[in-house]
Amino acid sequence: MISSTIFIHPATWFLMGAVLLPFLNKRPGLKKGVLIAVPLIAFTVIHWLPDSFGQVSYMGFDLVFGRVDQLTRVFLHVFTVMAIIGCIYGLHVKETGQHIAAFLYVAGSLGVTLCGDYLTLFIFWELMAFASTFLVWYRKKRRSIEAGYRYLLVHTAGGLVLLGGIFLRYKNIHDLSFVQIAANGATFADYLIMIGFMLNAAVPPIHAWLPDAYPEASVTGAVFMCAFTTKTAVYVLARGFPGFEALAILGAIMTVYGVGYAAIENDARRILAYHIVSQVGYMVCGVGIGTAMAVNGAISHAYAHIIYKALLFMGVGAVLEMTGKSKLNELGGLYKQMPLAMIFTVIGGISISGFPFTSGFISKSMIIAAAGESHRIGLLLMMTLAAVGTFLSVGIKLPYFIWFGKDSGVRAKDAPWNMNLAMAIAAFLCFFIGIYPEYLYKMLPFPVNYHPYTAYHLSETLQILGFTGLGFYLMVKKLKPEPKINLDVDWFYRKGARVFMVFASRPVLSSDGWVNDVYRRIGFRLTMALAKAISWFDWEGIDWTIDGSARGVVECGNRVRSLMTGKIQHYIGGAIALTFIILIIVMLV
Amino acid sequence: MLLRILNYLNEHSRMLKRLFFAFLALTVVFDFYAARHAPHFFGDSIIGFWAVFGVLGCLGMIVVWKGLSHVWLAKEEDYYDK
Prior knowledge:
The structure holds two protein chains of two kinds. Chain A is mostly helical. Chain A is 73% helix and 3% strand. In chain A, strands 1-2 form a two-stranded antiparallel ribbon. Chain B has one domain (2-81). Classes of the chains: A mainly alpha, B mainly alpha. Chains A and B meet through helix 11, helix 14, helix 15, helix 16 and helix 19 of A and helix 1, helix 2, helix 3 and strand 1 of B.
């Protein structure tokens, strides 16, 4: 029985695709076929899911691989649509490893969306973190490799907090089922789980991994990453923690925090990464408010956001692919060379800003209106202010300094057909959802009693957007991009690792005399183990630069390149084997 | 085709500017006529509230964040490599 239900699970298809892809290196046509077929099959399969499947009893735990309700369905829908778009966008990529990483990543995300217990959730959760790290590394620049390690370490730490919460919860109530937790009865264990989820949703102050890693990811990798990690986190928060006040407040802070950084950043993909923080803030806030309308709003915004944010990353990624540049101060005047990428990016930009007839208009406003109806005026004003900042930096600033502004002399052509096709599909969906919101609304878990196209909402939106444009017009000189980076909380671990090294080496020298023998022995070992871990990180991260400068950047880059490709195939091979063994054991035992 | 439209718009930036200001005026005029069902707070019943909010919010955000960046947050691009 189980062996037949395994094919119902959409993640199975991505895992099978990931196994199949390495054998198709010599058959590029067939490889492309698999890349398109797998997400299409998954998109079809999710329409036929039974309410419950894949229940396995394993070592006394009840694992649930398939729990399907309205909340699951809408996320599965957008995740598989996004997988189709992402695969088309990355069709020209020759490295099979990147496709494998993307497939495993999507599989992890679908697995989390469908699972009904915390253990299964954790397995797929870690698969996501692990697979997406490769999407960063595949950019194959020194910075990406460093950023990838930081990304992996942060997510490992977050995963451990989550696991700690899961164990504590099991100890307390002997139940691992993943269900809604009541806000007034939440225990310490539940908050640990929530923190684990919040890390993936990039809630400040544990958000810095996102603007650190995403801008360093490969062009197609970033398109996948911007869609899945944070929105899977929104899904689990909406499933487990609706109505938590902390989420409402932190979410509203997120919206403003993200757009603030976006206003001062220079790298186009980092601007977009900070906008993920901001946009996910709306969803986190909506989940935190917790009314039917707010949760509906959060989910519809997640749906809309996945499409338009991917479109933005695709548009800017196309510029990066064709020119090799993503910093605004190095770009400008590209409209003659890449008009299609411009049109698509602007469509993404007006969607994220919530222009009438685009997807942002019908989803973001739902959360803001829900905040108003719950009399949360502070939240309402913060989110509206963030909407102003969103239009300022993504709607105007980003396209202006890439395609208009001062001509930078960069010469390029429009992107290959598959990239443009993927962007066209996403752009179509932005308008489709905006013009025909019922399509999205009828997928939502609660009945929708909200009408976005009222005269007052139109008036409000047009005023906000128009007068934000006026603000830009007045201040355009102040907004001139500068080749700088801005400190964020990742400073603590990026600079802190070095301080810790100094700290770790001194106690070893000076601990004689006043520390008693036993304590010294334990303390010494502990410090050495920690120092060893840190120095490993340090070797991969910081020393690379110091030694690398002597070797020369080119040589270093080549070395990294050959080193990484060799290893990555081993890693991924091992990962797939492991995942599959686990899955088969769990499914068949 | 697309390129020609863009070139045309680029050459007629003064016309665009006038159209833009006309649009701004129209949004405020439109606000006089927009029916307000169940306003959420006092701002919803003031004509042109969101226009003022938009322009002040935008300017304020630029001043505050650009200021923060200049005095504190901005570092050279190789800051973490040093």
